[in-house]
Specification:
CATH architecture of the largest domain: Orthogonal Bundle
CATH superfamily of the largest domain: MetI-like
Structural class: mainly alpha
Shape: globular
Helix content: over 70%
Strand order of the largest sheet: 1-2
Largest sheet: 2 strands, antiparallel
Strand content: under 5%
CATH topology of the largest domain: MetI-like fold
Number of domains: 2
CATH class of the largest domain: Mainly Alpha
Order of helices and strands: HHEEHHHHHHHHHH
Number of strands: 2
């Protein structure tokens, strides 16, 4: 009997070692892939910054790398990206939180099981489909109110990206609210609070870390969105406060260069890596900020 126990223990230890090795290998692949992407971007961007100074790149207000006279001021691309990000966030974040409050606190279990998967279906729609939706539906609706609006405009891009990130905000926020212990809710009801007061004054603050993390992740998604904003917002890099004007984001420029006949090794081709590195730095900063928020505002319950 003891020999069988020893054999079983040896097999269990061997299985544990194999599992640990497989999991470590998967984690290592992920880390190496990330460093590989960083290395490719830096290697490709270094020749660009040898010809274009960092000051010119980050402070210039004219972006025209493909047409003479060439200029490499990335601010118009960053501006266009931020218009999409801010516009979509102003729409998606409040609607997403309100949706999460309803799903977590007001909807019945049966209704929640129907509404939440239906909402999350939006996250699985290809982005190119969202782009066509913006051109064929959102832009015509904007043109009915503002006839001077062109086919490509920042407003349509912001609206369609808001629809794209809405499931992320609502789903993650609802998960964070559902994780709040029920005894906190019951304590509020015991003190005479209404459901609205419990939802907004107890559950919402208790789930703040998860909600803020969903905001940051959604904004990171908006920063990196490509095909939808390429089709909806256009490819005209300019700094404008009019959301009805055509703009260009960093991702849209990368698409433009990727499908063009730019020669490999040229300054125009190298600008692709410079813009990509800038975009990577922005999304990395947002993700690090998300991790800090989760640690800073995380609530631990017994």
């Amino acid at each position: 009997m003891s020999s069988v126990d020893i054999t079983d223990g040896a097999v269990t230890d061997r299985t544990t070692d194999i599992a640990r090795f497989v999991f470590f290998a998967c984690a290592l692949v992920t880390v190496l892939t990330t460093f590989g992407i960083i290395a490719v971007l830096i290697t490709g961007a270094i020749p660009f910054f040898r010809e274009v100074s960092l000051i010119e790149f980050f402070t210039g207000t004219d972006w025209s790398p493909l047409i003479r006279p060439r200029s490499f001021g990335v601010l118009p691309l960053i501006w266009g990206t931020m218009i999409i990000v801010v516009g979509s966030a102003l729409i998606a974040l409040p609607i997403g939180v309100l949706t999460a409050i309803y799903l977590s606190e007001y909807a019945s279990d049966r209704l929640r099981r129907v509404l939440k998967p239906t909402l999350e279906v939006l996250a699985g729609i290809p982005t190119i489909v969202y782009g066509f939706f913006a051109i064929s539906f959102i832009t015509p609706q904007i043109q009915r109110v503002f006839p001077e609006t062109g086919t490509f405009n920042a407003a349509a891009g912001a609206l369609v990206v808001a629809v794209m990130i809405l499931p992320m905000v609502s789903s993650l926020s609802e998960d964070a609210m559902s994780a709040v212990p029920d005894h906190l809710r019951h304590a509020g009801y015991g003190l005479g609070a209404t459901k609205f007061e419990v939802s907004t004054n107890i559950v919402l603050p208790a789930a703040l870390s998860g909600i803020l993390a969903s905001f940051v992740l959604a904004i990171s998604r908006a920063i990196g969105e490509t095909m939808a904003v390429t089709l909806a917002a256009g490819m005209n890099p300019n700094i404008t406060f009019n959301v009805l004007d055509e703009i260009q984001t960093m991702t849209a420029y990368m698409v433009q260069v990727g499908i063009s006949d730019v020669a490999i090794g040229s300054i125009q081709y190298q600008s692709l890596f410079a813009v990509g590195l800038t975009l990577f730095a922005m999304t990395l900063a947002m993700n690090l900020f998300s991790q800090w928020i989760r640690r800073r505002y995380r609530e631990v319950y017994d």
